[in-house]
Amino acid sequence: MILVIDKYLKLELINLSHAEELYRLTDNNRKFLDKWLPWVKHTNSDKDTKEFIKGCLKKHIKGEGFNFVILYKNKIAGNVSLVEISKFRNLAEIGYWLAEEYNGKGLMTRSCKALVDLCFDELKLNRVIIKCETRNKASQRIPERLGFYKQGVLKRDGFNNDKYVDHVQYSMFKREWVKRSTDSK
Fold it and tell me: Which pLDDT score is estimated for 166?
């Protein structure tokens, strides 16, 4: 599956052919990413990245998640995913990261918008959530730009760098997304 956003930006469903480039991007951005993402310290080879991708593919086959590489000018710039799809709760959670050099270009906002559209238009879900660490203001700007509602702070919701961290949870319902899209036309 490929979601074309514009002539420079597209999302491609992750596969094993991405492993080497994705690992290299992770390794080159280790210090930048480690501040926010607990998995970085456990990703020490392209073999680790291949195992991650295999897990993503299993979730995809079961319909429990989709993981995409963000391709900007045909190079991997980061990752955006539906880390959880719950048919019972009729929702999905979006997670994302971007290499430092690609920040500030609007890539993640447009990538997340494409996934929200996928959730509501194709998967027929009712709600999309995004969680961001409370200290990560740059990450919080993504759902805020997209018009998500700040639902509150989840105390001790994650664990990173040997300590518990709090997350801000943002939410968007299909009816509000459709209304925003209609109002902007």
Answer: 79
* Tokens matching residue 13: 């469903």
Which residues, in sequence order, are CB contacts of 121 under 8 Å at separation 6+?
none
Give the start-end residues of each E strand in 53-147.
Answer: 66-72, 75-86, 91-98, 127-133
pLDDT lower than 50: segments of the chain: none
Domains and CATH numbers, the chain: 2-183 (3.40.630.30)
The encoded tokens of residue 151 equal 């639902």
Amino acid at 12: E
Other CB atoms within 10 Å distance of the CB of residue 39 = 13
- Nearby residues of 36 by Cβ (< 8 Å), 6 or more positions away: 97, 133, 136, 139, 160
Tallying the residues shown for the chain, one arrives at 185
pLDDT at 12: 96
pLDDT value, residue 101: 94
- For the whole model, what pTM was predicted? 0.91
| Whether 36 contacts 136, CB under 8 Å | yes
**Are 76 and 23 a contacting pair, CB within 8 Å?**
no
